[in-house]
Structures are given as structure tokens and as C-alpha cells.
Amino acid sequence: MLKVGIVGFGFMGRTHYKCWKALDGAEIVAICDANPNIEEDTKRAVGNIGDPNETVDFGGLKLYSDFDKMLAEETLDAVSITLPTYLHPDISVKALSAGLNVMCEKPMALTAKACAPMIEAAKRSGKVLQIGHCVRFWPEYAKAKELLDSGKYGRVLAATFQRLGSPPTWSIDNWFLDEKRSGGVALDLHIHDTDYVQYLFGMPRAVCSFGSKTPGGGLAHIVTQYLYDDGKVVTAEGGWAMMP
Questions:
Q1: Peptide bond into 107 cis (omega under 30)
Q2: Contact between 164 and 172 (Cβ < 8 Å)
């Protein structure tokens, strides 16, 4: 039985809780969150997917507010890291260095440079580091990948992806809207389609992105073209500027 801890228990932490609970071979044994009132406050942690009325059974779970203490006291096999993006590298490296497998939410980190220590820690430990690019596994997207790989409908000439929504205002302290902590619309939202594009078609030869900013200076909308040597036209669009 895989013993699992969850680090960060807001909306996405609760989503990971649901997924782990659905697996026969896994048992959630500990939750770590800096909020001392997490048992009550998680009820108000709603987001853009899932059922906000789903409950969490805290019975039998050990609650921590300090990740180092959780590592020292619990015998874990894996952790889900569902913290704000800027915290991913440090916590992931600690977990991997402690011999744990890591499921880290997307985006992996704010920069490629910040990703490097995570990759190195995974190599040193021999443990799994998986980034939670969930779109690959959603049934309709998995089917599209299957059809493309089969060649049933021939060569792809063009592909367009669109992911538009209202600003994500459900995060504590509105960290989603702070690009220095979340990466903003490009890294938190648009990255879904960037990952899926390269999953479908491989690494593009070049990428070109254009965006528009809010009055406050943050990126509100982005359009990216992915250039491939075979001439296919691939475009993705993402934005947080839609009205609720």
C-alpha cells in the first residue's frame, strides 16, 4: 500500500485527495498546510473543476503545518505537492532527497532554471518526479492522441486550441493573479495547451507568442504559434480576461 502525504490543501490539494482516495493501492496518511484552520477552510476552497460540495474525511489523517516535521515523523512513499508555484522547487527537492516519489502540480516552476534542481534531485534519488499535466489524461484528449498516432485520418494540416476563462480569484491571498508567484496566464493556464501540443506533435522547431496586458501590467491574454518542419499550422490561445 502506497502511503501518501499531500502538501498544500486548498482547492487543488482537495482535488488530489479525491484522486488518491479513488486508487485501491494508495492510502493518504498525512496532510501539510500552513493554515491551522484547514479542516474548516478547505470547505471554502473552490476552483474551476470538481464538485465544491465534496467532503474530506480528516479522520485518521495526521495534520502538519511544517513540511520538515512531516518528513521526519511520517513513513511516506509519495507526496502530492499542491502549493503555489514558486514553492514547488524547494519542497520537491526536499521530498525527493528524502526518498519520496513526487507528484507536483503544474507548472513545474517559474523558470527553466528553477526546474533544474528538481530534475537533478529526481535523478539522484531514483524516485519518480511527475508534473500534473492532467489534460493529457482527460478522455477526450487521450482519444485525440490515440487517433493521431493511429494515422486513421491522415496527416494533421492544422490544429487550434483555445482555453479561455475568467480570472482565477479563488486562491488564498489571490496568489494566482500574482505573476511572480504563479507565472500568470502563460504558465498557469496556457501551459496546459503548450504541454498538449508537444505531447501530440513533438517539440516544435520554434515558438512565437503574443499577449495583451491588463491595466495593472499583468498578462491577460496570450496566443502562441508552434512552428513545425512539416508545415502544419498549430495555434493555441489562452486568457483570463473573460467575464464570469
A1: yes
A2: no
Rounded distance between C-alpha atoms, residue 103 and residue 78, angstroms: 8
Q: In the chain, where are the structural domains located?
A: 2-132, 140-239
Q: How many CB atoms lie within 10 A of CB 169?
A: 10
Q: How much of the chain is in helix, strand and coil states, percent to nearest 5?
A: 40, 25, 35
Q: Write down the residue that cell numbers 487550434 correspond to.
A: 160
Q: What is the rounded CA–CA span in Å between residue 46 and residue 75?
A: 30
Query: For residues 158 and 229, what is the distance between their CA atoms, to the nearest angstrom?
Result: 13
Closest-CA residue to 16 (of 83, 62, 66): 83
CATH superfamily for 2-132 is NAD(P)-binding Rossmann-like Domain (3.40.50.720)
* Architecture of the domain spanning 140-239: 2-Layer Sandwich (3.30)
Q: Which residues have C-beta within 8 Å of that of residue 33, sequence separation ≥ 6?
A: 7, 8, 9, 10, 13, 63, 64, 65
DSSP state of 85: G
Confidence at residue 44, expressed as pLDDT on a 0 to 100 scale: 59
Q: Coil, strand or helix: which one is 194?
A: helix
70: left (phi over 0), alpha (psi -120 to 50) or beta: alpha
Which residue matches cell numbers 465534496?
54
- pLDDT tens-digit map of 162-203: 999 988 887 878 888 899 999 999 999 999 999 999 999 999
